[in-house]
What does this fold into?
Amino acid sequence: MSKLLLLLAVAAVAAGCASAQAKSPAAHTNLEVPPVPPRVIEALPVAAAPPEPVEDLPPVAALPPRPRPAPASAARDTTKADPKAAEAAPVELPPAAAPPAPAPQLRTPGTMDGAEAARQVNEVIGRARQALGSIDYQRLSSERRSQYDSARLMLTQADDAVKASNFELARKLAEKADVLANEMKGR
It folds into this structure.
């Protein structure tokens, strides 16, 4: 029976190939190329007329000349100095400008100042240390020990970030360490 089905399938395929005819190629029409457009050369723009001269500005009042300091050799020779000239010579220096106040630290509206942020981060670090302190390291499996070590490393990095005033990073590290410690303590 299987030979008969195979023979019928081969006969059907052979019959299909025998009756198929190749289609004649479609007639292609040649495309007409449009003529090249004429070249138009534009003339250079005419240079604008030079601007009209402006009247001279009014003269600025001359500043009084600065008094020049006396040469060092004249300062040594005080016996010849005229006392009247010494009284007229003192020149008042302008008062020194006060140094500008340091600019306030820029922060986003949701962030606290340095002292408040450091206090909050230190609270989280303290909670995480307390949670890690309540865990018996010797009873932990090797996987749990690696998590414990990771939490301690995060706390060390959080301390370093607080010292560098990077409170956002310190808070994230401390929170991760706190979560790890609480998970280990809960199991």
